Amino acid sequence: MFKALPDLLQAALLTLEVAAISMLLGVLIGLGLSLIRIHMKGPVKWFATIWVELARNTPALLQLFFFGFGLGAFGIHFSPYLIVLMGLTFNNAGYLAENFRGGFGAVPDTQIRAARSLGMTAFQTYTRIIIPQVLRIVYYPMTNQMVWAVLMSSLGMLVGFRELSGETQFFASRTFRIFEYFAVTAVIYYIIVKIILGVSRLLAMRLFRY
Amino acid sequence: MQPTETFFSGFALNDFWFLGEAALRTLWISLLAISIGTMMGIFFGWLLSVSRIGGGFVLSPVLDIFRSVPLIIQLVLFYNFAPIVGLRLDAFEAGLIVLIVYTSANVAYVARGGIEAVSQPMRRAARSLGMTY
Prior knowledge:
The complex is a heterodimer of chains A (210) and B (133).
Chain A: H1 5-39, H2 43-57, H3 60-73, H4 80-106, H5 109-117, H6 122-137, H7 139-152, H8 164-175, H9 178-207
Chain B: H1 15-50, H2 52-68, H3 71-81, H4 91-117, H5 120-128
Helix pairs in contact in B: 1-2, 1-4, 2-4, 3-4
């Protein structure tokens, strides 16, 4: 039982890695999607809207299955790692886009006009004035989303990805000690989430000093 | 020519019947879990907001467990835990119980936020008008 612990912890690192990368990509894509939905018209906007709607209104498991087996049916095959990464990124980007849209709504328009009248270009206005304020507003929703990403990555076990849950499933089906292994995994997940929340609180103290 | 036997068949029209049946089950389990879970969650939220020690130090860590362990892990865990303590549950009941607890844990924090958003003066004013708790 305890001989499996190093493997489980290794798998936990993999979980964290996938969640973190998907979160990073999700923030970038989500920013793009929300900006598109605010400023653009026509097919580009429809694309962004459809993305957000699909990501928020279908189960994360189905999204993973789409990248795994749906594309697989058309002969496009990915490794389990990529499947989980793409599925999570798709999901995160959709949810974060809505968060960011709320954030952009909360930054007053006068900020944009003030920055523009100081001679900044539109790009400078966004990267130096608006987006930092938005990130500050959506910091806590983003923390939640990070926790959510870690929890959702556990669905990877259903597409054959050997992260924490997949590894547990593997050990459990080899030894038939299902309850014991999953209990250990639950504890590890709990600790991971607590660590993420603690780190984010420390970061918030450092970032929001002013 | 003899039709070859195969395990796979295309998506036929009468497959919608099975999918519809499953969708009804989804709706039913969600309805039950949400309604029961919300009621329990409001009660827990009230406990959280009322007592520092009982709510903050006992209930809150317990609820945290259900919020920070992935749902599938909880489902697998409970489904395998129930026979150990001698409960005979089918998949629907086991899933329902896990979903109820999960929903109530999530709703509890929302309910606490809602209760604490009502300002203290409002409460004092109501009590001083002679209302009971």
